Amino acid sequence: MRILFLLLAVLFVVLQAVAGEPFFSSPMRACRFRRGFCFPWQCRRPFYRVGSCGGFRSCCVR
Fold it and tell me: Could you tell me the superkingdom of the organism this chain comes from (predicted)?
């Protein structure tokens, strides 16, 4: 019976850790989360690169 309580406590701790992890299904969503825009190749003048949107696209923010 004590093992059941221990397993329940471990499950609770694992689920708490998983709930705090951000999950993005695509690089474009991650870019939008950073308040960025996806530009082909390189970022234009008032923007600077903070990541990639996949392929040849760059994630740019102002």
Answer: Eukaryota
